[in-house]
Amino acid sequence: MTDAARSPEDLGRLAQSLLDELALVTDETGRVTRTYLSPAHARSIDLVGGWMRERGMTTALDAVATLRGRRPADEGAAPRTLLIGSHIDTVVDAGKLDGTLGVIGGILALEEIDRRGLRLPFAVEILAFGDEEGVRFPSALSSSSAATGTYRREWLEARDRDGVKLVEALAAFGCDPARIETATIDPAGVLGYLEIHIEQGPRLEHWGLPLGVVTSIAGQTRMSMTLTGMAGHAGTVPMDLRRDALAGLAEIILGVERIGRQGTGELVATVGRVQVFPGAGNTVPGRVEASLDVRAAADTPRLVALERIAWEAGRIAERRGLSFALERHVDVPTCPMDEDLQEAFARAVVSLGLDLRRLPSGAGHDAMAMARSFPSAMLFIRSKAGISHNPLEWSDPLDLGLGIEALVRTILDLAEKERGR
Ligand code: HGY
Ligand code: MN
Ligand code: MN
After folding, report:
1. Which atom of ligand 1 is nearest to the CA of 132?
2. d(CA 211, CA 399)
3. Ligand 2 centre and the CA of 73: distance in Å?
4. Which ligand is nearest to the CA of 198?
5. pLDDT at residue 1 in the model
6. Is 19 left (phi over 0), alpha (psi -120 to 50) or beta?
7. 110 Cα–ligand 3 center, Å
């Protein structure tokens, strides 16, 4: 007995209700903030794990707290596995869709396949990554890096704002940092990795399209800058005798912006987080720590911009009598998406009667890390006004439903190919 297939409208409404429920799981009352290994992360694992188990999946937590939901194959002697996933961690004061849509969409796509009484010649594993954003620790993509055996051990020594080390937070969460290698998924048994995600940009809306196939993901470098001068009394230290770390950083930030504007390859450069020490209004800032995030659609413009920023910041610091240190935390090259899986997504989009457009991603995604081991591809869903990393982030539920229906059809497309393999 099979149920009728849900329409994209119904799929979208159902997805929205789950997204709304998950958005209530937050570390900060009144806004969506769910960072890696936090109490809200633990509660989100329980909630999403329950949705997986209600739909017949078996669930497990890997050594870096990635929640994995597995639907076994319906046929085949030694079936392979299709991976589907995205992240359930968020930025601070986030929207409801970034990452979570890819996990909830995967769960609902598998439910649709079961409701329609369809069979798959491969297993499907849904991965809910806990650290894509790298907000609590400077360890972006650490969960998906663990899945591809590319985890950077130095991340374990990174500290959060309260001075807690990542290795300590993992142990406190019940994970064993000594077993991180066990999170690696053997590529031999994997068909590939699919991720549906909001575009987080304005292109699909500009084109009047609900869906788009991702061609590549911009490379990104994330660093921290530390400037050290001399703290002093705001009332007594003359302006020409100051070594004001924050004033120096301000000049550097304007340089980052100028270099970003001058770059090619859709270069973007951002200083998004600044910490000022000692941080008193009547004290000349003695030290500042700031983030630096540089991305481009090709590697050369990004690397050239990084060189220019480092050189210019060094000169500014020298002139102001400040010491300057740069530390690299994330360095991910531009990542092309797998051609065959792109075509599977493309066929699904066309089968929905939609115009097919392809586009690069300026935002980073777990697919960048997953592509190190597996053929990987992404499908974008239109973002209203291109807004993301912002509580105003929103997509029309119909677009969500179309994205999930496209994922269903892509899975079925791959099932046909797998049978003929
Ligand atoms: O920052 C990014 O590109 C992604 O949202 N983590
Ligand atoms: Mn994000
Ligand atoms: Mn994301």
Report:
1. 6
2. 7
3. 32
4. 3
5. 41
6. alpha
7. 21
**Continuous segment of H or E residues that includes residue 14:** helix 8-23
**Per-residue pLDDT reduced to its tens digit, 81-134:** 999 999 999 999 999 999 999 999 999 999 999 999 999 999 999 999 999 999
Confidence at residue 21, expressed as pLDDT on a 0 to 100 scale: 98
**Other CB atoms closer than 10 Å to residue 163's CB: what's the count?**
7
**Helix, strand, or coil here: 166?**
helix
Q: How far is the CA of 406 from the centre of ligand 1 (A)?
A: 23
- Chain centre distance of CA 110: 22
Ligand 1 atom nearest to CA at 293? 1
Beta bridge partners of 161: none
**Is the preceding peptide bond at 177 cis, omega within 30 degrees of 0?**
no
pLDDT attached to residue 203: 96
C-alpha distances in Å from residue 272, one per residue of 142, 200, 322:
20, 17, 21
Looking only at the bridges linking them, the beta strands covering 283-284 and 335-336 are unpaired
> How far does the centroid of ligand 3 lie from the alpha carbon of residue 366, in Å?
8
Is the pTM value of this prediction over 0.85? yes
Q: Please state, in angstroms and rounded to a whole number, the distance separating the CA atoms of residues 165 and 33.
A: 19
* Nearest CA owner, ligand 1 atom 4: 364
Residues lower than pLDDT 50 in the chain: 1
Q: Write out the two tokens for 109.
A: 């796509």
**What Å distances lie between residue 17 and 55, 96, 101, 290, 295, CA to CA?**
16, 11, 11, 37, 34
For ligand 1, residues with CB inside 6 Å are: 132-133, 140, 363-364
- Please report the pLDDT score of residue 297 as a whole number: 87
For 366-397, how does the pLDDT look when each residue is reduced to its tens digit (9 = 90+)? Answer: 999 999 999 999 999 999 999 999 999 999 99
